[in-house]
Amino acid sequence: MLITEPLSYRLALPADYPEASAALVLDSPHSGTAYPPDFASSAPLGALRTAEDTWVDDLWGDAVSMGVPLIAASFPRAYIDANRSVEEIDPQLLDQPWPEPLPESPKVKLGKGLVWRMLDDGTPLYDRKLSVDEVRHRIDACWKPYHARLGQLIDAAHARHGKVWHINCHSMPSVAGAYATDKPGLVHPDFVLGDRDGSTSDPAFREFVAAWLAERGYDVTVNDPYKGVELVRAFGQPSQGRHSLQVEINRKLYMDETSLRPTANYAKLKSDLRDLTAALLDWTRTQLG
């Protein structure tokens, strides 16, 4: 069953949801490809699309038939980033001061706050300033419904099983862009798992996934260079049986990073992620006792 919220998300639910749903929830916050007309970016579409986690929701999509709900953003990351705090506003983008105090944010300093100022290669997104009302519209129409629906899915799984495991699904370029992170030019491994140094999940979740992937020949790092950002921070509460893990997949494993087209290895990676999901479902059942 597919449920959509205009501008915000598309939600794939198992046919027998919630009766036989798993204690696992997946979300893909950067898979959106519907560019709203009010975006009015000065960057070309081809450049904007490099910010997308292209194909990530499809790569994990077999999980739905296995009883796992999967929510994916409809809006593009360059329009508003669901994996940022609603307070990570970039004052350089605005035509007037934001009415509330803004905390310091390393992502904002990189130009990658709630609303991006530039792409990974430094390409500016706008030749104009944004109004406060524009940013608030994006928050209300896109960010808030996405966070609310993901929260409902996680709460429902927790209520049903007493515990819940959440995977926040992402992709990363094979090499970090000049303005992408604080480690420009870094050659990325196949997978990076992030739980904010164990603060968003029992480390056993992370270690199970890392070991499973390593056994299949993938190069995996943990909390380096990506520890996880807003979504795992917001929903991961291991002391309450709520475990959130960010999973970054290297795009070179499945697509041409210039054309964004799937490569010959796409089917293998998708099959491996299906097998990982099956293994995780077995593992979570043992954790439920």
Automatic annotation (TrEMBL):
UniProtKB keywords: Hydrolase
InterPro entries: N-FG_amidohydro
Source taxon at top rank: Bacteria
Pfam families referenced in this protein's UniProt entry, alphabetically: FGase (PF05013)
Gene3D superfamilies xref list: Zn-dependent exopeptidases
A molecular function GO annotation: hydrolase activity
Protein name: N-formylglutamate amidohydrolase
Record lineage: Bacteria, Pseudomonadati, Pseudomonadota, Betaproteobacteria, Burkholderiales
